[in-house]
Known about the structure:
- This protein is α+β, with helices and mostly antiparallel strands.
- The chain folds into four domains: about 5-165, Glutaredoxin, CATH 3.40.30; about 180-200 and about 295-315 and about 400-585, Glycosyltransferase; about 325-390, no CATH class; about 585-665, Glutaredoxin.
- The strands form seven sheets. Strands 1-3-2-4-5 form a five-stranded mixed beta sheet, sandwiched between helices. It has a four-stranded mixed beta sheet with strand order 19-18-20-21, with helices on both faces.
- Strand 14 (about 450) and strand 15 form a beta hairpin.
- The mean pLDDT is about 95.
Amino acid sequence: MTNRLAAATSPYLLQHAENPVEWWEWGADAFEEARRRDVPVLLSVGYAACHWCHVMAHESFEDATTAAEMNAGFVCVKVDREERPDVDNVYMTATQALTGSGGWPMTVFATPDGRPFYCGTYFPPRPAHGMPSFRQVLAAVRDAWTTKRADLETAGERIAAGISTRLDLGEPAALSADLLDGAVAKLAGSFDQRWGGFGGAPKFPPSMVLEFLLRNAARTGDATVLGMARRTAEAMARGGMYDQLAGGFARYSVDAQWVVPHFEKMLYDNALLLRVYLHLWRATGEGWARRVADETAAFLLRDLRTPEGGFASALDADTDGVEGLTYVWTPDQLVAVLGADDGRWAADLLEVTDRGTFEHGTSTLQLLADPDDERRWVSVRRRLLEARAERPQPARDDKVVTAWNGLAIAALAEHGVLTGSGESLAAARGAAELVAGTHWTGDRLRRASRDGVAGAHAGVLEDYGDLAEGLLALHAATAEGRWLELAGELLDVVAGQFVDAQGWHDTAADAETLLHRPFDPADGPTPAGIAAAAGAAVTHAALSGSPRHRELGEAALASLARLVDAAPRAAGWAAAVGEALLAGPLEVAVSGPAGPERDALALAARRSTSPGAVVVVGEPDAAGVPLLASRPSVDGRPAAYVCRGFVCSAPVTDVSALSAAMEPSAR
């Protein structure tokens, strides 16, 4: 037997299609049914790779007795937070306001008009750890709905009013050098000198903050700032949060030492981190950073690319209901695969102990130092990966989310041009073609697709900003005008639909009306929508010379100045874009016939660490490429044209002159 979710496109909803719960998808029909039956709505929000979502599903939603109580007393609505970030934002705000924390699974009880009156996250099947059982919660809410209905409705009205209050971001201000340097100082105050990262456990990869630190170090030359970025990146890459065999990062570390991950692998983390490690390698020449960038790109292409050319959202945290089953090892297992000598060598190298670093005597794999025998390590790694492939594998959430594919397009396009990987560049182009042809309707974006078919849900601000970012990186990498053109169309929608006299919003003006129109200026695991849009607008202006796009980006950043100053850990991407504005950003056009001379200039230009620099390489006056317009060869030789902050220098034809022209002192 299946329920209504059997017709869903979301892999997360499909995971619940055979529950005995009579689930509804989010929509007006569900709330109309709650009004008709005069019962509350039980809203359950999660995502496909969420470990505790699976646990609660197994314990409660698959249990016939619990399901019967849910069906009798409530209209039960299941939401994939990744398909409906707007719905998730509204009810997560309520959950955090009522409980002081949040997370997934999220469990919300609401009136038939959608006003939340009781919120929580995971509830166990039996009372434990100070939490009531889920069935106790169901009974209590059902009783209160019968005996204290007016109180619940009043509470719902009060909560709805409270979460609808718009956040005061203060007076707009430019992101000055002093403000950004002050943000770095605040970050240094919470920096973990021993293990890297910021704050204590659990530790999430601070992707946007790392990009900001790299850009700040490039501007200031401060080795301490670069050291914070390098120490954090190396600790993450050598710890158990990084897959030492197949590449790719897990969602976060449950400990402060980056040893034990929460095992799901998300597209957005790996796309953002690929870019960070690539830029770190460019800045420092560290071989391990280049290795991690290459391995992460390979992970994206091998494990997350869909048949249609896009990138799937995630690999699950669990395998056959067991977290980490695919990834962890014992010393005996290493010996069984590798033999006694190599098995013991690998155990020492990878920190696999008899006691274990994870559960039940198993260990995650760490690579705290480079192996003393690289050829031996290559052989060991290959054999372990082959053996691991014979184990049960985690499920894949294969929906293609617009924003996260935009991040992947940007990262792979840059990886392609900085390392010469034609495969990465081709994959970036393939993903862009899928999203442009399937998610873009000609005037609006859809949030996601699956199996090449776009879903019904509208794109939100991060979809427009992150996709525009990716398309602009692809334009710079390929000198193909269509990507700049589409990025401009996306930013036109941003200006027309997501910002008004009240300020910025995460949903379009004509999107579905929720309890309130959500807006979150803070970065989460991905850049905040407003920061993503600001970055794309600034880059577009640098590539196209468009004043209105620069003004859009500057205005967005100015509204985030207080957040950058007060909470830089939540505003890393805005701060990174601020560094780009301070740097100009640098614009370099390498123009002329293809060949070794042009390639040498292109390589030098792309090695620049100037924050937010844009580089385009191609034939003079190439169609659809404004940066190459009216920039001819010089005496028949390829030439580089360097501009910064509305001022251009004379064209140069040799690498040393180009490198000198790109230095900050050349302003």
